[in-house]
Task: inverse folding
């Protein structure tokens, strides 16, 4: 009987020690988790005119035409738009092909690219102006040049007007 009592007591002590160790490791990793949360923002970063980054840019093709982008608008391969991981929708970005020195101003309307080594995807129309269609992926410089006001479309305005009556 005393052997059972000893075993139960030992199990209780081990359980208490393991929960204490877990609590200490959780509190030790909490600052790391907090810094990771700061490093990977869940909300889009604030765009400031003059911000610039360099990296690889690709273009996404016509097969996505008509699909909704992350901003809610339909993807138009003939529009001068791009996908970016963190810049707010409506940000105007000057994309410069570092090899040809050609540049174009596009508007952020989508999230992406999913490929970790890339900093953005542009539409087919922007890719043509940048002379990157054959290469597919280029080294580019992205510079924030401003913001475009994202107003509601005509249909949405009509619906809102009808709803207010």
Result:
């Amino acid at each position: 009987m005393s052997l059972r009592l000893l075993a139960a007591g030992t199990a209780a002590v081990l359980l208490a020690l393991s929960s204490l160790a877990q609590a200490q490791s959780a509190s030790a990793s909490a600052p790391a988790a907090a810094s990771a949360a700061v490093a990977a923002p869940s909300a889009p970063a604030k765009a400031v005119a003059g911000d610039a980054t360099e990296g690889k840019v690709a273009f996404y093709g016509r097969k996505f035409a008509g699909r909704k982008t992350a901003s809610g608008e339909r993807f138009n391969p003939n529009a001068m738009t791009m996908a970016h991981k963190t810049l707010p929708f409506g940000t105007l970005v000057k994309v410069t092909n570092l090899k040809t020195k050609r540049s174009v101003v596009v508007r952020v309307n989508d999230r992406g690219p999913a490929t970790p080594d890339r900093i953005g995807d542009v539409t087919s129309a922007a890719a043509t102006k940048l002379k990157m269609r054959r290469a597919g992926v280029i080294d580019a410089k992205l510079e924030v040049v401003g913001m475009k006001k994202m107003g509601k479309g005509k249909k949405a305005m009509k619906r809102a007007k009808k709803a207010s009556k």
